Amino acid sequence: xxxxxFFARSPADVAGDLIGAHMTYRGVxxxxxxxxxxxRADPASHSFNGRTPRNSVMFGPPGYAYVYRSYGIHWxxxxxxxxxxxxxxxxxxxxxxxxxxxxxxGMTALRMLCSGPGRLCQALGxxxxxxxxxxxxxxxxxxxxxxxxxxxVGPRIGITKAVDEPLRFGLKGSAFLSKKF
DNA sequence: TTCTGGATTGTCT
DNA sequence: GACAATCCAGAAC
Length: 181
What we know:
Elements: H1 3-7, H2 11-18, E1 22-25, E2 28-38, E3 65-70, E4 74-80, E5 86-96, H3 98-105, H4 110-113, H5 117-124, E6 140-143, E7 151-154, E8 168-171
Antiparallel strand pairs: 1-2, 1-6, 2-5, 2-8, 3-4, 4-5, 7-8
Helix pairs in contact: 3-5
This protein binds a DNA duplex through residues 36, 38, 44-46, 49, 52-55, 68-74, 76, 78, 88, 90, 116-119, 156-160, 178.
């Protein structure tokens, strides 16, 4: 599928189809195994209360990275979809640049490197400086998956609003999910 | 200008 | 299983 058209859809569709995609940042990355969808009418979405300087990227064109700080400590990486919606990247199966990830995370346990949005950004070295960058140009590289991957679908994690909506997607049987479905 | 709460993680029990 | 750490955006005043 065409790259720009891939992201110009509802976040639930994009989140499911992103499972199995190969993503790298400065040559470090792996296979996306867990995502969450945040649509425009979602009370848990940053875009729900309207456009602000922080979330303005979500209101821009699809196929861009939206990075924000969570709990004052962690960075979280999102992919912008149709206007005012995005997909949160929650977990990646490490494949490329393992040494760099282990060094940044300060550990070598493979399944602890990228199993969570904060850990993922730390392992890849993503920060707020990368907010608003296109996903089809360096330092990002994204290869869309060939065919549909076997999916788990379940309620989202770590939020306080609209908790029960089944908008979390994961690769079935993966050992690199942040939590079991 | 001040205050509040969060799309999390690591550590301790 | 429970909880503290830590800081910025957004809202209220």
